[in-house]
Design goal:
- It comes from Striga hermonthica.
- One of its GO terms (cellular component) is cytosol.
- GO terms for molecular function: syntaxin binding.
- This is Vacuolar protein sorting-associated protein 52 A.
- By secondary structure, the protein is mainly α.
- It has one domain.
- It starts with 12 loop residues before the first helix and ends with a helix.
- The mean pLDDT is 87.
Length: 100
């Protein structure tokens, strides 16, 4: 186990910036791909949509944690412009997890 990855280790903006920018550039397309995969992979539509909703909820939880962590990193506020708003993610989740 890598002891440098424990909670004591300070994380720099330089380490997090590529992750934030990558997420910001690909998140919408990734959600759409997940939705399309669920539609084509599950014969039971309601079951598939429930799985998609659970996966998207987990994505939102992890992203919220990342966003909160950014506030604690020295200089992290400089990346606020690159963070996707939680409300934008929630809008997309609602859009793709509707049942008809």
């Amino acid at each position: 186990e890598d002891s440098s990855s424990g909670p004591e280790r300070a994380i720099s903006v330089a380490e997090v910036e590529p992750i934030i920018k990558d997420f910001a550039s690909r998140w919408k397309a990734a959600i759409e791909l997940m939705h399309n995969d669920v539609i084509t992979s599950f014969s039971n539509f309601l079951c598939g949509m429930e799985i998609l909703r659970a996966a998207l909820t987990q994505l939102l939880l992890y992203y919220t944690r990342l966003s909160d962590c950014m506030k604690r990193i020295a200089g992290g506020s400089g990346l606020n412009k690159d963070l996707v708003s939680i409300s934008s993610i929630m809008y997309e989740i609602r859009k793709y997890s509707r049942t008809f």
